[in-house]
Amino acid sequence: MEQNWSARLRQGDEDALCEIIRQRTLPPEDLEELSADVFLRLWRSRDKLKDGADLSPYLAAIARNCMKNYFRTQGKQPPVRQSYEDLLLSDKSDLCGDAETTEAIACLIRALDKLEEPDRSLVIRFYFYGEKTSALAKACGLTDTAVRLRLHRSRGKLRKYMIERGFDHAE
Fold it and tell me: Which uninterrupted H or E stretch holds 133?
C-alpha cells in the first residue's frame, strides 16, 4: 500500500511532493500516446454516447482504463489515487467539490459496507489499491476465475444499490 502522501503534504514535506511527481509523471511521448488513445477510444465508442450526457465521466473512465493498460504493458502497478481509508476519513467535499458527487461517494461507501466478506475486501483491494486478481486469489484461497466472478457480481450489486438511490453512472 502507498504511504500517506496527503498527510506528508499537509505537513509541508517538499520531498513527498518530489516523490509523487517522480512516481506519477510519464515521459512526454507516453503522455501524447495515451492522450491519443483516449480520444481514439472515444471516437470508436461514439455510438454509445447519449445525447446531452456529460462527457467528463465517460472520458475519465476511458482515461483510467488507458492508464491501467499502459501500466499493465509496462509491468507496473498503477499508482493508487485514493486509499479507501483516506476516503472514509476525509471531508468528501474536499475530494469532489459538488454536493451531488459528495453524496454519490457517501452512497458508494454505504453500498460497499453492505457487501459481505470476502467480496467487500476484494472490491476494495482491487479497485482502491490496484491489487491484481491473481494476488487476491492467493490471499483469499480462491481461484483467479472465482475472484473475477465475485468482482463481477459485486459490481452488479453496487450498481443496483446506487441506481435504487438515484445514482446512474450514465447520467
Answer: helix 133-140
Amino acid present at 171: E
Going by C-beta distance under 8 Å and a sequence separation of 6 or more, which residues neighbour residue 171? 53, 54
The size of the chain, in residues, is 171
Read off the amino acid at residue 35: S
Give dist(CA 119, CA 110) in Å, integer.
Answer: 14
Give 133's contacts (C-beta < 8 A, 6+ positions apart): 126, 144, 147, 148, 151
Q: Residues 122, 133: contact at Cβ < 8 Å?
A: no
Mean pLDDT of successive 10-residue stretches along the chain, which has 171 residues: 62 70 67 84 84 76 77 64 51 51 78 90 83 90 95 93 78 44
Whether the predicted model's global pTM rises above the 0.70 cut: no
